[in-house]
Amino acid sequence: MNSLFPVAALSLSLLATTSGMAAPPKETVSDGVVKIGVLTDMSGVYSTLGGKGTQVAVEMAAQDFGGKVLGKPIVVIGADHQNKADIASAKAREWFDNEKVDMITGLLNSGCALAVQKLGGDKKRIVMVTGAASTDLTNKAWTPYGIHYVYDTYALGKVTGQAVVQTGGKSWFFITADYAFGQSLEQNTTLFVNKLGGKVLGSVRHPLSTADFSSYLLQAQSSGAQIIGLANAGGDTINAIKQAREFGIGQKGQKLVGLLIFDTDIKSLGLTAAQGMQFTSGFYWDRDEGTRAFSRRFFAIHKAMPTMDQAGAYSATMNYLKAIKAAGNDDPDAVMAKLKAMDISDFFAVHGKIRIDGRMVHDMYLMEVKKPSESKGEWDLLKIVKTVPGDEAYMPLSESTCPAVKK
Amino acid sequence: MGMSIQTVLSQVMLGLNNGVFYAILSLGLAVIFGLLNIVNFVHGALYMLGAYVALLGYSMLGPLLGKPDFHLNYWAALIVAPLVVGALGIAIEKTMLRRLRKFDHLYGLLLTFGLALIIQGVFTNYFNVSGDAYDGKPEVLNGVVDLGFMMFPKYRLWVIAISLAVCFGTWYVIERTKLGSYLRAGTENPELVKAFGINVPLMITLTYGFGVGLAAFAGVLAAPIYSVSPVMGSEMIITVFAVVVIGGMGSIMGSIVTGLLLGMVEGFTKVVYAPASGTVIFLIMVVVLLVKPTGLFGREA
User: Fold this and answer.
1) What is the reported pTM?
2) According to CATH, what is the number of the domain A30-151+287-363?
3) What ipTM, to 2 d.p.?
4) B138 and chain A: CB distance < 8 Å anywhere?
5) Chain B neighbors of A83, CB-CB under 8 A
6) Which CATH architecture has domain A154-285+365-385?
């Protein structure tokens, strides 16, 4: 915390000097360009829900902003992190050191996001994570230059976990993706299940990108738990749900709960297979006029409606650019101070605010998959059951282990 | 998690289900390696293509022909997909692999590996990487059967039965019939067999077509179980190559038996210690290579 006061003071004084002048000073933007790097899963198990679509969203934001900020061009580049932390980290280093990249966004994998955020901390560059979910990003792995924008495992576990336990799902068994994200999601959900008097009977871990879930599903079935919690994402969740249906699991007594589901997963599963499932999301394209307007424009380019990761990357980029404009330069400290001071409010973020720990707190939604008979179109997939205010969904600062949070 | 006999049996049954895919794919590889001396790395991509023929035939062919109600049904796909992919294989053999025959194995391996990357890359570009659902599973194969120790999906039982039939049928043709003896003789001494008036180049081309047709057949069988995705082949092929190495390159019966056994070993590992299930096959491969480098069923070179 101590380190932030001089920064805030500095940025305020900068603002005072720039606003006093008729024209902005010459070297306001380092290297004469604002370069945004979209580093995400472009080819793997998560690429449908992020991938090129995330880059499309970021490019849209740069364009909507006018293509220039403080008179300098905005450039967007993209790369595939292949869901491997070492590759993500090497690419980010190359971008920071040689390619003049000012900000990295996307990062659809907690392992990759943790590595890149750490590097951003060392190199003093802003990292806006839209894809990954681990709460470690805003706790023990916190850096002054990291922002966790769209959702996290705490919010997913809390909103979905509470909704399920309150409707009678007391005993749980987890099928968990065996890396930082899955473990974090399982832990966070377990916390709320226990808090409300539920019980976790066991769990089984599977490697990322698994084709055959039948064996894990049978273990879950024989545990006798009422709820089979899927602490995985993307292609893994799709396969698990599909195969559960095949074995007749989830049809009598036991219920499957996907803890992280994206619209594109439902699209792939089909409404018949997914109907009635509840999960938590930070965004739904068909929520109001604003989301629909953006999503239709996005659809025209990408041929799919945006997921929360993709819409979030647009919003993150837009607000990053706004902060540069407000700060009058692209110095990471000044921009971070602006970002944390401004209200984040657009079609994506409702009542948004970036906290001291880097968490962008905004309203979250408990969603339910529509029945085939309720759907009026190809992408008419979900309904919002409940809107959960950001302060209720996300981890309160009092529980945080972030080094910047004073206890 | 208790280790009841029921749990073990059901996991082994699931393992057998994966094992038949290993068996049918490694069988194709063994046939191709045995007769053409080519390490066919494009096998996984052709398995994926087979699944896509089924998927696209079911959901896109009708609209394309202007008859939106037309679906290429599952049974037809089981025949059409191997034919389509087999024809593609024949084209690959005639235009590319044939030219490499006089060079080292390595060139064929590199070429087929490159082809696999290209096919997968093109499909990744046009299709959903997390997979699309195949909706053409026939009504008769829906539902589950009570095996006593577990409820097992009818469809998977069908997959096990038909795969075993195809595997052992292939083995019988190659090892026990006249046609098979020509094939085997053709690889040992092509000049001599030619002298008997047999068209060896044609035989080799058709063999390659048949081998990759098997991969496409497995792809159709897999479509209703797994999501049909551009990466389904590359995920499978690494394990399948390990199976081939363990069984012994080029051994027909070896590849079938090893495929089935390793599927079951993998299933059993999931009960004992699930995280090791992804690596157990490779551990076995290391041990086999150390103890018997030609593979369990391999002939001494």
Assistant:
1) 0.79
2) 3.40.50.2300
3) 0.74
4) no
5) none
6) 3-Layer(aba) Sandwich (3.40)
